[in-house]
Specification:
Length: 257
């Protein structure tokens, strides 16, 4: 085996994937449950979709379950999505199902990739591209270690017909838009309302309602939807995240038509 051949194989293969991702139908920011589910359903509908994930690992907040007990809970509707992905869950009592966090994170990732999603880990979205009529039409990317080391290195950009902000509690893409782009988010105040304290029942319902196009070309999904619209957090129940991802995919597919 030749080290240089190994190196060339990696460089050429990665470069091909990244070049392919410079023109997308949908760019998803964040490989947590909402982002991976959204990307999975889009890819199954033959939409060209990639996920950009800041961290080394995908899965976002799934792995740690509740307070590091690596189990998550879903309700009846969430279980249907786990079933679709072939993820095992055990009925705890009526309306409450428990799944293994490691199985959830790894299977969502595996099924999304097999459906055709490209996942780029270790890449952070540091800005958006804006075009006519103040529409989000791409992402500005940099290596996460560049941000971590605070190096002054200019980013690169990709074009995308739609962007899904699935960045979790911080709703980073929406924050960028409110800070740097003209116009307002489609929230009552035009700004980000900020996430509220825990109330699982309301939070789960509202996550789904809040999954919308919040700015032309920008859909918000998962926990970031609640941060944008001022809804509560829900703790380690994940049905809302899965359902929000599925709704975001449906919305994106409709908007692409
Ligand atoms: C690239 C980025 C950037 C960026 C962030 O936090 P997540 O798991 O998000 P969701 O919405 O899919 O799921 C939320 C859930 O995990 C959770 O936190 C719950 C249910 N909390 C309830 C409660 O009460 O606390 O994943 C978001 C992903 C992460 O992997 C980030 O690293 C990534 O997005 N990310 N990737 N560029 N600018 N910002």
């Amino acid at each position: 085996m030749d080290e240089v051949v190994i190196s060339r194989a990696i460089i050429e293969s990665y470069q091909k994937d990244l070049l392919e991702a410079t023109e997308l139908d949908v760019a998803v920011v964040g490989a947590g449950p909402a982002g991976m589910v959204a990307a999975y359903y889009l890819a199954r509908g033959s939409v060209k979709v990639a996920i950009f994930e800041r961290k080394l690992s995908v899965g976002g907040g799934i792995w740690g379950g509740g307070m590091m007990f690596n189990k998550i809970v879903v309700q009846e509707e969430g279980k249907e999505i786990l079933d679709e992905f072939g993820i095992a869950s055990v009925r705890y009592q009526k309306g409450y199902y428990v799944a293994n966090a490691v199985e959830v994170a790894s299977t969502l990732c595996s099924r999304a990739m097999k459906a055709g999603v490209s996942i780029f880990n270790l890449i952070s979205v540091e800005d958006v591209v804006i075009r006519e009529a103040d529409r989000v039409s791409g992402l500005v990317l940099n290596w996460s270690p560049v941000q971590m080391a605070n190096l002054h290195i200019d980013p690169l950009a990709i074009r995308s017909r739609l962007v899904i902000d699935a960045t979790g509690h911080d709703a980073e893409v929406c924050q960028l838009v409110t800070r740097k782009v003209r116009g307002e988010l489609r929230t009552p105040s035009g700004k980000m309302a900020g996430e509220k304290s825990m109330w699982a029942e309301v939070a789960e319902r509202e996550t789904l309602e809040n999954t919308r196009e919040v700015y032309p070309g920008l859909i918000v999904a998962g926990m970031s939807a609640n941060a944008v619209f001022g809804s509560p957090r829900m703790g380690p129940i994940f049905g809302g995240m899965l359902l929000s991802g599925k709704k975001a995919a449906k919305l994106a597919a409709e908007l692409l038509e």
